[in-house]
Fold this sequence. Notes:
The protein is α/β, with parallel strands linked by helices. It is built from four helices and five strands; from the N terminus they run βββαβαβαα.
Amino acid sequence: MLGLDYGSKTVGVAVSDLxxxxxxxxxxxxxxxxxxxxxxxxxxxxxxxxxQIETIILGYPKNMDDSVGERAKxxxxxxxxxxRRTGLPVILWDERLTTMEANEILIESGVRxxxxxxxxxxxxxxLILRSYMDAAxxxxx
Length: 141
């Protein structure tokens, strides 16, 4: 599985192991403008082939009151682009508070503030993917 934390100018990327037990960060894809997605989609497609991905888990930034705001709508549009580009199923997964949690993990790990920005989206992608895998495991037990 591939986990993605989709932001306005970055996409954090994580992958699971073959058994779907662990997740690790791969990279953060950056772009200069929010709507310039061609290279971002091409890189994700490359990663799906490289890691033999079967399913994409895309962080879904719903509002705290469970409503769907502008960022979530953009994420839905990105999901549709991913499906067209890769032909893979894309599951939207609630990502509320993952960036805050990722920041706390990085602070606790002693990562300096100026260094956090370059890895926070990748860490958030790991948290999104791990949350999905944990929920899937709970469902089967």
